[in-house]
Write a structure and sequence with these properties.
The chain is an alpha/beta fold. The chain has 14 helices and eight strands. Strands 1-2-3 form a three-stranded parallel sheet. A three-stranded antiparallel sheet has the order 4-5-6, with helices on one face. Strands 7-8 form a two-stranded antiparallel ribbon.
């Protein structure tokens, strides 16, 4: 099984294309995931997540109506492609076991990403309607957004809470919590149902923001969650190191790097009961494990390794 993510033609130039690999092992399964797939006028176009997110139309549906296009956080298309890759690879391995023959799988990250834009494409095809930029809002929820909170004990003012109301019961609970603090504007009939809340969303967001601004974000989150309202604080990077849940699960651990010194890193995400993972050493320095890899893994003799070293091939 070989997986690669190069621009089409790269492996062939290196003499590692599917034809070459299958001559060595006819059972080999080669999975190729390129930006636009093999074949076509743009097959050799290279790019990264930001480029592909734009080609897939994602940047055109994210952001606020008074601003330009916004890229999704991270290489979103890279997160999408593996969902399709797993099924394709399993099918190829199943065929390999049944027939003894390998397969070359060709997958376009652009095409897999379009599947996640299904509702947007359907709306455009059936209704001729382009999606609107709505910021933090959601087509099936109201209110839905991030709202400012009171400064915390350190004096930091950039504090926020997210609230997402999808049902009338959740709205009633939120409305009652606001009313308990004397904020009665939300009791108005113009907010009674989802449809009318959507029609007056700017006004509603303003009322909620005025209320949340007087509350500590963590206290308000716990209060709303206890009332059945989906709510969560907006953490910054420093907050993550102090998060009680992450601390309880020992998510961060400290390692000592020979050049960087002590640094924090993520611990193993999978918690195994019988064979728990561990992190006890930092990433190796450049070339630190070259001799081990070439001699112990690849199997070069000491004389072969020294010959490469003396020729400067390992510098």
């Amino acid at each position: 099984m070989v997986t690669e993510n190069f621009t089409p033609g790269t492996l062939e130039r290196w003499g590692l294309g599917y034809d070459e690999l299958s001559r060595v092992n006819p059972r080999i399964v080669l999975f190729s995931a390129s930006m636009l797939g093999r074949g076509g006028p743009m097959q050799t176009q290279p790019g990264f997540g930001a480029v592909l997110s734009s080609l897939a139309g994602y940047t055109n549906i994210i952001g606020w109506p008074d601003r330009g296009p916004v890229n999704p956080y991270g290489a979103y298309t890279d997160f999408v492609c593996p969902k399709f890759a797993v099924a394709a690879i399993l099918a190829a391995v199943d065929r390999q076991r049944a027939t003894g023959r390998g397969t070359h799988l060709d997958m376009s990250q652009l095409e897999t990403s379009l599947h996640f834009g299904g509702p947007m494409l359907l709306d455009a095809d059936v209704n001729g309607r382009e999606p609107e930029l709505v910021g933090n809002r959601h087509p099936a929820a109201s209110p839905h957004g991030a709202y400012p909170c009171a400064p915390d004990t350190s004096g930091e003012t950039d504090r926020w809470i997210t609230i997402a109301v999808f049902t009338d019961d959740q709205w009633a609970a939120l409305r009652d919590e606001m009313s308990a603090d004397g904020v009665t504007d939300a009791q108005s009939g113009e907010f009674r149902t989802f449809r009318v809340r959507k029609a007056h969303e700017d006004k509603l967001d303003g009322i909620i923001a005025g209320w949340t601004a007087n509350h500590d974000r963590h206290e308000l989150m716990r209060r709303l969650q206890a009332a059945g309202v989906p709510a969560g604080v907006v953490n910054d990077t420093c907050d993550l190191f102090e998060d009680a849940q992450l601390q309880h699960r020992s998510h961060f651990t400290w390692l000592d790097h020979p050049e960087m010194g002590p640094y924090a890193t993520d611990y193993t995400e999978s918690h195994l009961s019988a064979t728990p993972g561990r992190l006890d050493r930092p990433a190796p320095l450049l070339g630190q494990d070259t001799e081990y890899a070439l001699r112990e893994i690849i199997g070069l003799s000491e004389s072969e390794f020294r010959e490469l070293e003396e020729a400067g091939a390992l510098e």
